[in-house]
Amino acid sequence: MGAGDLPPPRLPEECEARCSWDLSTAPGWKLGGHEPWNHQGYDGPVRCGTCGSEMRFVAAIASQEWNGGRESWAPVGSLDASPDVLRRHREATDVVLGNRETMRVFACPLDVDHPVISDLM
After folding, report:
1. How far apart are the C-alpha atoms of 88 and 94, rounded to whole Å?
2. Is residue 27 scored above 60 in pLDDT?
3. Is the pLDDT reported for residue 64 higher than 80?
4. H-run or E-run covering 12
5. Of 43, 66, 46, whose CA–CA distance to 57 is shortest?
6. Which residue would you say has higher pLDDT here, 47 or 67?
7. How distant, in Å, are the alpha carbons of 21, 29, 36, 102, 111 from that of 68?
8. Which residues does 29 contact at the CB level (< 8 Å), separation at least 6?
């Protein structure tokens, strides 16, 4: 290819994994913003069991700060470390939920007395 040539276009299927793992959702602990989705995709908003309103995402508590598919989120230099140091960097909080899952917590925006909803993904 010459200096002005563009690389050939890529098929969407070739870009999907990189978008999912590297670009779209930062792994790890999170407060507020948009909730992380699981690998199966978005199932629509979480609804309050009391009033039916759309719940507000509060927090994500993750077992790992990044995983094998999201090495682009790893701190610089940590991927070259020994396996023990690598695990300590990846699981910096020492909090492990389920089978290394992430807990999402939601609250009703209309009434703080309505029960929160949490799930593991």
Report:
1. 8
2. yes
3. yes
4. helix 12-18
5. 46
6. 47
7. 9, 17, 17, 15, 39
8. 59, 60, 61, 62, 65, 93
Question: Which residue, among 58, 67, 57, 56, has the nearest Cα to 101 in the 3D structure?
Answer: 67
Q: What is the pTM of this model?
A: 0.71
Q: How far apart are CA 102 and CA 98, in angstroms?
A: 8
Residue 20 scores a pLDDT above 80:
no
Q: Is 29 helix (H, G, I), strand (E, B) or coil?
A: coil
- 65, 73, 70: which is closest to 21 by C-alpha? 70
Tokens of 51: 């009033």
pLDDT at 110: 98
CA atoms within 13 A on the CB side of 27: 26
Token digits of residue 80: 């070259």
Q: What is the DSSP string of 56-120?
A: EEEEEEES-S--GGGGGGSPTTGGGS-HHHHHHHHTTT---BTTTBEEEEEE-SS-TTSPPEEEE
